[in-house]
Amino acid sequence: MPTGIHIRDARQQLFVAAERVLLRDGPGALTSRAVTAEAGVAKGVLHRHFPDFDAFLAELVRDRVARVGDQAALLRAAAGIGSVAGNVTSALTELFDPLVLAIVSLVVFRDELRARLRETGPAHGIPVLTEASAMLAAYLTGERELGRIAADADAESLALSLIGAGHLLYAGGDRLDSAEPEDVGKVVNAVLADVLQRTGS
Fold first, then answer.
1. For a surface tag, which of 2, 6, 137, 163 has the fewest beta carbons within 10 Å of its beta carbon?
2. Cα angle value 76/78/83 (rounded, 5°)
3. Residue whose C-alpha is closest to residue 185's, from 162, 158, 154
4. d(CA 35, CA 12)
5. How far apart are CA 181 and CA 89, in angstroms?
6. Residue 12: C-alpha distances to residues 60, 85, 180 (Å)
7. pLDDT digit string (tens) for 118-143?
8. Number of helical (H) and strand (E) elements in the chain, helices listed first
């Protein structure tokens, strides 16, 4: 088997194992030993592919950030189609799956991980949520250019409000996925009501 394929397979196996540990046991239980045990590999396998455990975790988070980038491209393409509130509601319900919530908790839990991520990403904010806010801001900017929200709408501030409210809805219940789409829709409509009403939408 070519070396590159072998490395990618091992990395993916370790990422999947880390996600399982994180979802099941929380960020406090996520150690290199827990990950390799979950993956069914020797502990040295992780350190063959990553300089240290925080480097591994940083790549795990960056993998999720890349998925937000994929979602952002689809959302931008939806500008002008359907309803603005409906598109934002769908984006938030897709974004806030249990793994995203667990990864946000992990980033908050580990200072060294945040420092690593800031070496290559935004200097402020919480990774994944920061990129998600940028995703919504870009979408709302597109809708503003199409005249579907008010011309003076502050897309960045609206996006921050939506991400903050969405995170509270999903992370605030007894279960990570406790929020219902209807609840998310109510919040989205409340946040966007003014900029939508002033266009007659």
1. 2
2. 125
3. 162
4. 12
5. 7
6. 9, 36, 31
7. 888 776 788 899 999 999 999 999 99
8. 10, 0
Cα(90)–Cα(139) distance, integer angstroms: 13
Crossing angle between the packed helical segments 53-77 and 129-145, to the nearest 10 degrees = 10
Query: In the 3-class helix/strand/coil scheme, how is 65-116 assigned residue by residue?
Result: HHHHHHHHHHHHHCCCCCCHHHHHHHHHHHHCCHHHHHHHHHHHHCHHHHHH
Task: Match 């605030």 to its residue by tokens.
Answer: 172
Give residue 61's identity as a one-letter amino acid code.
V
- What is the spatial distance between Cα 169 and Cα 96, in angstroms, rounded to a whole number? 9
CA-based R_g, the chain, Å: 19
Nearest to 89 by CA among 195, 194, 197, 183: 183
Rounded CA gap, 153 and 148, in Å?
10
Structure tokens at 50: 């990553």
